[in-house]
């Protein structure tokens, strides 16, 4: 088990995978001339929207989500929160609005603004409590609550995530982490094995699984899994060097 839960890797939502498509803003009056304006200036989007007083029907909220994701890619998380909030405000489609709130929460979490992250995830869940975005919001909400010191609530939301989407591998992993922290090793082990069956595998999962195995007295298996974790870590380090 990792000693510092802040170093634990949690799901941070859907839509952050590479490659990132270049983003464009619609309508045309929102297009930015890169020769005159820094394309990652945090105030450009706000100023242009205010200047033109654009109505919701004239804004492509999905494109604003893409803008936020691009900010996330370059680690401009504060600017990302602004873009995602505007996307949520202008969205006329519940699914896009929900995705925007989930991603806004993830951006706040990157800034360690867990109170704001919690609020954003709750906004997402309130829109539709049973969608795939809701499952992501629930598991991310669990992480934010954990970081905020509300550990019992964290487990409740981690469990809700796998209820919504039983095939959400990272949600099983996160639930297992919280169970391990509470000393429920056998239940945690089941979660880790579910995550692996669904194709999720990383160093942290293997380390947590080794701890769970050791707690239930399966020392030989625990040692094997710990060795597997170490080997995977070395492989990842070699790839970074390359």
Describe the structure.
Helix 6 runs antiparallel to helix 7 and helix 6 (132-147) packs parallel to helix 8. The protein has helices at residues 44-52, 61-73, 77-90, 94-110, 114-127, 132-147, 151-164, 169-181, 185-197, 203-215, 219-241. The protein is globular, with a radius of gyration of 20 Å. The protein is mainly alpha-helical and 242 residues long. 66% of the residues lie in helices and 0% in strands. The chain has a domain at 1-130: Serine Threonine Protein Phosphatase 5, Tetratricopeptide repeat (Alpha Horseshoe), CATH 1.25.40.10. 42% of the residues are buried.
Mean pLDDT across residues? 82
CATH topology descriptor of the domain at 1-130: Serine Threonine Protein Phosphatase 5, Tetratricopeptide repeat
Write the H/E string, N to C: HHHHHHHHHHH
Q: What is the makeup of the main sheet?
A: none
Structural class by secondary-structure content? mainly alpha
CATH architecture of the domain at 1-130: Alpha Horseshoe
If you compute it from the alpha carbons, what radius of gyration comes out, rounded to the nearest whole angstrom? 20 Å
Distance between the termini: 29 Å
The number of helical elements comes to 11
CATH superfamily of the domain at 1-130: Tetratricopeptide repeat domain
Name the helicity range.
55-70%
How many individual β-strands? 0
């Amino acid at each position: 088990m990792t000693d510092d839960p802040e170093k634990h890797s949690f799901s941070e939502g859907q839509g952050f995978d590479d490659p990132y498509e270049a983003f464009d803003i619609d309508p045309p009056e929102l297009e930015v001339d890169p020769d005159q304006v820094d394309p990652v200036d945090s105030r450009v989007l706000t100023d242009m929207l205010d200047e033109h007083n654009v109505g919701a029907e004239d804004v492509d909220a999905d494109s604003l989500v893409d803008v936020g994701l691009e900010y996330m890619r370059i680690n401009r998380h504060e600017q990302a929160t602004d873009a995602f909030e505007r996307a949520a405000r202008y969205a006329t489609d519940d699914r896009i609005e929900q995705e925007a709130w989930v991603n806004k929460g993830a951006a706040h979490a990157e800034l360690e603004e867990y109170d704001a992250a919690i609020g954003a995830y709750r906004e997402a869940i309130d829109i539709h409590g049973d969608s795939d975005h809701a499952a992501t919001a629930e598991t991310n909400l669990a992480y934010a609550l954990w970081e905020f010191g509300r550990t019992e609530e964290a487990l409740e939301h981690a469990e809700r995530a796998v209820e919504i989407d039983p095939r959400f591998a990272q949600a099983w992993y996160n639930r297992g982490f919280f169970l391990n922290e509470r000393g429920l090793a056998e239940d945690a082990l089941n979660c880790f094995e579910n995550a692996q069956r669904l194709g999720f595998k990383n160093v942290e999962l293997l380390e947590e699984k080794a701890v769970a195995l050791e707690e239930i007295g399966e020392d030989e298996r625990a040692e094997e899994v710990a060795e597997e974790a170490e080997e995977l870590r070395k492989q990842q380090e070699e790839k970074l060097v390359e």
